[in-house]
Structures are given as structure tokens and as C-alpha cells.
Amino acid sequence: MKNFQFVIASEAKQSNGIASPAKRIGRVRNDKSWIPAFTGMTLVLAGCFLKPLPFQKGRPDYGVDITWHGHSCFTIKDSVNRTIVIDPFDETVGYGRLRLKADAVLVTHNHFDHNHVQAVKARIKNIDLVDSTGTTSVAAGLDVNGVNAPHDDEAGDLYGLTRIYSFDMGGLRLVHLGDVGTPDLSPAVMGFIGRPDILFIPVGGFTTLDAKEAKELVDKIKPGAVIPMHYGDIRFYKLAPVTDFTQLFPEKDVVDLHDSHVRIRRADLKSEPVVYTFIPTRND
């Protein structure tokens, strides 16, 4: 039985440009009566095979491996197998039950379809949880930057705020927009987003951007790659299909993967945004 620890990223503050480290908390079981006699040898052997998370960044030529689990949840890995999960959902959403492993979990807002961190276990020993704005260092040296934005077109009065996260991984800059609900973001937020290499953007409408609003925002941001999310039928809402969004782009700029996974490298990026559509993983 493993004892996992969560590292909670509190509201981050920067000092002299250095990202705040995450705070580590956890519960350890003290009752050892359940441990069989051979556990000591087992743990020694396990220790021989567990590789610590490297501090070096992933190779820029490798890029990142991206897996879509449905809704707004993704697993992202680099060449050293550093693993980030964003916005895990619970089983009531309609995509099944997630059972994931990662070095860090990013939660854009505390709605049940984005914050089910219990579905994600530590890949090695500890797991970092980021659910705040500011800059936080996680997963052995990965700096995650977060900023608030409205979840609706009423300045957050309807659904509150969502966080937008930005981080560099595999030689690429990635931005996940959470549940952004308006294309009319403030100059400060637009400056934070900049021009990322990969943009994860909600397109299904109802509680977030709809297809036309998402296309308007993509035209402003001009990312290298676009990954639509938060669309299609889920258990509680009938969100618009992804085709409402993809039909707004030239056919040559849309890649239907027919898979839940893709590797994106800098060499794959073009002068115009390329839209990637996935099928979700088969979750239990």
C-alpha cells in the first residue's frame, strides 16, 4: 500500500523573480500491523527501480505527448516522462471514471467536472496540486503561471472565475484557458496569454465560449496549434459538437486524429493555427 502526498500550491508569491515552491502535505498511516513480513525486501527492490523525477527539461525536439480524456481533462508528458494532468473530472460527467498518474495536477476552477483530484495518483512518490494564480514551481522545476478570467460574459457574476494556466514544456509554451466564457478578455489577461504554441480552448458554449466566440479568440491569439475542449453531450448539458468550431477553419488546417493521443513538436507548427480533434480515452 503506497502513501501518496499532495503538494498544495498556495496563492503564489514571487520574490526576486523566483517561483514559489509548493507546500507538501499528506497523511501517513502509522499502523504497520498490516504489513507482511517480506515487505521490507519488497520496498528495497521497488526503490531500486523507481527513478526520481529529473530536474532537466524535456528535449525541445521531442515536444509533448498530449492525451485527451474527455471534457477539459488532458495528460501532458515530455521526453523525460514528466507528467501533468489538467482538470480531472468525476464519473458523473459521462466520460467514465478516471484513474490517472502524474507528477502535478492543475485545477482551473472548483467545479466537479474540473477538480476531481482524487482520480490522479502520484506517478513516483509525491504529486503537486496547483489551484491558484501566480507562479508556482512543480514537478521538479516546471513553472506554472496562472491568472483569473471570467467563466461567463457577465464578468464572472454567473459562474464565477476560472484560471488560465501557462507553462513551458518540451520546448513549447502551452496555455489552457479553463472555462473561459468570453472572447473579450482584458488587456492584462490577453498579455498573459500572449501567442502560445499550443492553446487548449473551450468551444461548446452554454457555460463557456461557443464556437464563434472561440474562433474569434483564436484569431486574436494566433497560436500554433489549437486543441478544442469542453464540447459535446455530457450528462448534465448538451454542449455543441466540435464540428461547429472546426467548420470555421479551412479544411487543410484541421487534423482529425481518430485517436486520444498526439505528439506535437515545434516542427509541426505552421504559420496558421492547426486544429487537432481527438476521441476521448476509454475510461473505466
Q: Which keywords apply here?
A:
284 residues, mainly beta, Metallo-beta-lactamase, Chain A, nine-stranded mixed sheet, 4 helices, 12% helix, 31% strand, disordered N terminus
Show the helix and strand layout.
Layout (H helix, E strand, L loop, with lengths): L4 E5 L10 E2 L1 E3 L13 H11 L14 E7 L2 E5 L5 E4 L13 E3 L1 E3 L13 E3 L3 E5 L3 E5 L3 E9 L10 E9 L2 E5 L10 H7 L4 E5 L8 H11 L3 E5 L13 H4 L7 E3 L4 E4 L9 E4 L7
Parallel strand pairs: 1-10, 2-11, 6-8, 7-9, 8-10, 14-15, 15-16, 16-19, 17-19
Antiparallel strand pairs: 1-3, 4-5, 4-18, 5-6, 11-12, 12-13, 13-14
Q: Can you list the strand order of the major beta sheet?
A: 2-11-12-13-14-15-16-19-17
The CATH class is: Alpha Beta
> What is the straight-line distance between the termini?
22 Å
Biggest β-sheet, characterized?
9 strands, mixed
Based on Cα principal axes, name the global outline: globular
Per CATH, what is the topology?
Metallo-beta-lactamase, Chain A
Approximate strand percentage: 25-35%
Polypeptide structure, described:
The two termini are 22 Å apart. The strands form 3 sheets. A 9-stranded mixed beta sheet has the order 2-11-12-13-14-15-16-19-17, covered by helices on one side. The relative contact order is 0.15. It has one domain (5-11, 52-277): 4-Layer Sandwich (Metallo-beta-lactamase, Chain A), CATH 3.60.15.10. The longest helix has 11 residues, at 39-49. With 284 residues, the chain is mainly β. The protein has 4 helices and 19 strands. A hairpin with a 5-residue loop joins strand 5 and strand 6 (83-86).
